[in-house]
Amino acid sequence: MKKRIIGATLLTVVFALLISNVVGVLMFRSREMDAARSTLQELLELMDAQSAITEPEALMEQFHAAAPDKRLTIIDTDGTVLADTGADASTLEDHNDRPEVAQAEATGWGEAVRRSDTLGTSMLYVAKRFADGMIGRAAMPLSSINSLAMTSVWGALIASAAALLLAFLLSRRTANRVVAPLSSVGTALQGVLDGKKAPGLEGPQADDELRPILRYIDKLMDQLEGYIQSITAERDKVSLILDCMDEGLILLDEDGKVLAINRAARTLFGFPEGEQEDGALLLTRSRRLRKAIHDCQEKHSSIMLDVDALTEDARSLRLFVSPVSGRQYEGQPVGTSILVSDVTELKKAEGIRSEFTANVSHELKTPLTSIKGFTDMLSSGMVTSPADQKRFITMIGVEVDRLIDLINDILKLSELESVAIDQTEERSAVLDAAHDTASLLEPSAKAAGVTLAVEGESVTVGVPMSRLKELLFNLMGNGIKYSENGGTVTTRVRVEDGKAVISVEDHGIGIPEEDQSRVFERFYRVEKGRARKNGGTGLGLAIVKHITQLYGGTVGLESQVGKGSTFTVILPIPKN
Ligand code: ADP
């Protein structure tokens, strides 16, 4: 702007100087010409006054002595040159054709500017018809007038240079004055952009005309600062939300290059924090993802797909790839958005559920197949003896009981699984529950030749009585099932570290080490044949584990093959 102000001023000054100089020089020259013309005319008038009484040659001599720098010529009426100070008259041709001479003959006076062939220079000629009819002509070279004009041109040029310098200095000063407040506006605006408070703009150096504008800009900047602050706050809020999301969010441009990626997406895809990601790298890793992005853009419809993350923990990711149109991110058009969620647990749960369904079907099928076999035999009439018929019917009854046990256990398990933690108010005495359960199991213990013992201190836990008995029933029942004839199953109750510790010990077949971590899984049996023969459903320990977890406890196992097993349940003791 400064340059433009100075440039425009200087240009104006240059034009003004040029015009005034040219006009000045032309006027100067024309004035000089007028003066020269008058001099020549005066000379001729004087000569005219003398011409009648003096010979042409003598007349010339006389006037040439008085004006040596002028060329004087006397021409006869027929054009013959009678005398000339510039050349020998006899050598000169007829002068009637000279315009000034012709004009003087016709009107009395004549004038011409022309190059003299005789003297070889530009001359101003003035001619006069004398009273005696002869033509007197006086001439002077233009070079003297031109050199005078040149002198005036130099003078004008020097004055112009001085005027230009002055104009430059003045315009620079003015430009500085005009631009200074604008520069301070610029500095202040930059300050606002850098997040600093805008300084007041109205300085003493500001011109009166600029003051209201500066005041207005000052106000605008205050507003702008407010806007910037609110936009920054908004942006921080959005990025906070994006960064706190458990779901990953990725924005791609129309070529599939990553424009933005939030913290969760980085973690899920295994991008190190802060690393400048190469968008293409992320997407070229999965061919299916690349295809989904392409299809999504092509068909303008959302696509859902599951991929395995290439991270060490191989998590399962569910991606929702959606087309985005007419939106920009930091000035670049967005083509696709990808919402990423971690479905590892969901997939695991789905796997467990389908495995459980398969197991349940299998477990149901076995007794049903047996029942079908027995009923077919009976209905075919092949079993005729009443003793055999009774035996078959008893076996059907056993399988039906097994089915009922199985269905009951499945129902219990699904009921236990439907809640994560039970904050019950109910309190139960562990020793009472153990004694009651032992009485309940007494007939089967007797049948197996196993002795049941319950001992320890009385302690109350925050578990409903029915669930506590269920837990003990499974543990003590297993003790009986997997003990040899003559064995003992001992249930002990004690308080340790402020917690109720219930252990059920047997001296039975024991559990191999490699199976110990798996016996709490649903339908997991160490020896399938024996477990089934004992009437086990394979769900007892899963139920135990779920009950202890539901009431904030833990269950552990110590066992040695051939020596026996001890299951230990630790439950918190409620304060009231
Ligand atoms: P089941 O109804 O088959 O007993 P559980 O879930 O109660 O099912 O037990 C799972 C498996 O753990 C059993 O099939 C058995 O192989 C083993 N098991 C459980 N308790 C004992 C124990 N006290 N001694 C030896 N093995 C046991």
From TrEMBL:
Every PAS domain range: 234-275
Instruction: Note whether Ligase occurs among the keywords.
Output: no
- Can the keyword Phosphoprotein be found in this entry's annotation? yes
* Membrane-spanning ranges: 6-28, 147-170
> Where would you say this protein principally sits, based on its record?
membrane
Q: Report what the protein is called.
A: histidine kinase
Q: Which InterPro entries match?
A: BphY/WalK/GraS-like, HATPase_C_sf, HATPase_dom, His_kinase_dom, HisK_dim/P_dom, HisK_dim/P_sf, PAS, PAS-like_dom_sf
What are the record keywords, sorted? Kinase, Membrane, Phosphoprotein, Transferase, Transmembrane, Transmembrane helix, Two-component regulatory system
Q: Looking at its record, which EC class is this enzyme?
A: transferase
Reaction(s) catalysed by this chain's protein:
ATP + protein L-histidine = ADP + protein N-phospho-L-histidine
Please name the source species: Candidatus Flavonifractor intestinigallinarum
